[in-house]
Amino acid sequence: MNELNTPSGEPRLTHVDSRGSARMVDISEKSETARRAAAAGRFETTAEVIGLLAADGLPKGDALATARIAAIMGAKKTPELVPLCHPIPLAGVTVEFDLGDTYIDVTASIKTTGRTGAEMEALTAVAVAGLTLHDMVKAVDPGATMNNVRVVFKEGGKTGRWERP
Fold it and tell me: Most buried residue, 22, 63, 73, 162, by most Cβ within 10 Å?
């Protein structure tokens, strides 16, 4: 048994102590390394909304610019929103939008140097971009949805690089 396994050898949840109580994982012994993470999601809407976006014709204004700023703010606020996340120094946040006929693919990339990864910040950025897009287009398409929010890749630390197959 080690600190990551139970007496029976099963993996132990790292955010739960021996009594089953939630805790923030102690990362003080981990090395600081350059880390990157990216997440993506798809905002599904109507062709009318995509047309209005392209023509800068949405009633609330520039939805993509607003969603980009909101996503960056979301990444910065992640430890305030997700209780057991460590605050990390964000070195860079980029948010990209790829418009299709009836969707917007959202990708957020995070760079940091620290003792823990940036996956949660990337996921939060994508989710907040989707929430903001919904707020900006709901007058035209109240049925819009944000779907398939997921980590695309992460790298750094002792586990190195992981990429979604």
Answer: 63
